[in-house]
Amino acid sequence: MTNFTLVGVTLADGSNANIEVTDGRISGIGKKTSGETISAKGLIALPGFVDLHTHLREPGYEQSETVKTGSQSAALGGYTAVHAMANTHPVADTAGVVEQVKALGDEAGYVQVQPIGAVTVGLEGKQLAELGAMADSKAQVKVFSDDGKCVHDPLLMRRALAYVKNFGGVIAQHAQDPRLTENSQMHEGAVSAELGLAGWPAVAEESIIARDVLLAEAAGSRIHICHLSTAGSVEIIRWAKARGIQVTAEVTPHHLLLTDELARGYDPIFKVNPPLRTQNDVLALRAALIDGTIDIIATDHAPHPDESKDCEWGAAAFGMLGLETAASIAQSVLIDSGDSNWQRFVEVMSTKPAAISGIVGQGLELAVGEVANITLIDPSAKREIRGGGASKSGNQPYEGMTLPGRVVHTIYRGAFTVRDSKLVERGQQ
Asked: Which amino acids are annotated catalytic?
């Protein structure tokens, strides 16, 4: 389909219009129609979502996810672009591997897959990876992260920050002091003490963030902090921004909704890195997202096969699914709470993540002439979450919960990848 009109959409500012799409681009926003007419009354039309933190697992861990299945899950969640983390096998620490991941995304064709390159060789924290070669590759990598591990060596981190500054790159730090979290299993607090599980102190995250924002200031470079999880981390980011440091930060959907109380059942589905924290932390993260201290929502979609979760807590893998539920949680926190609006929703789910990474053609306001990356949501819908959706894995933390909103259509480069909440197979788009 190359020519159609979405009739009667509601835009993020609350106005109503028809959106005409011709040959992959928005050709009109107003009262006119052309081509096939598709009723979108009651639907919110937004720029396609951009996830800055996705684990697609390929190459090497295809039993958990592939680029194709992860892309399908992303499309169902309203995404038109995802950033694939580097902790694959082999690690995405060379131009060859990041180009392979990009090619797999292009072949799948459901979303734009933008690889993230490793900061250090093999994620080992000893030697800088080929940052320049990855930036100059066909994948045009601009975001680098050892996510899953912290770049703990301050000298190495300072060198990385200085290096990527030369080409406008950004380091995305997984803030976790490894010495303070050895064998840690969940948030350190009253619940961990009651359950007898090794605690994961908030200061393990906060101390790394404090160090790295100062290193970024010294280098005059940008730094992005992955998955903030504590109230203390929020205060450090707020202080750094007030000081003029070039720092951005993300929060995951699960850290906006779930707490460490869920660990009481010893269900490993709720084991995640960083761990679920207290209700006070959740409230601080929500407030920071609303006031702009936290810039974006990023899913940290981390699929695992059943055997990695269907076991004792201590032996289970860290991680949760997130791509197909993120928009619902964003709606709950920002819209249904009455605390924010759809313009802020667009910022945290689309425009700001795209701006942080510099991904081309994504996160753009809906306007005539722009590439038609569009997500349409029914905000009045309610849905009960069952299973992992299109993902190969089933580590779904929201199983049985009723969440607000439903992605009805996802349009990527002018073609439907999701229509009427169902995947559109390649060749039928």
From this structure: 300
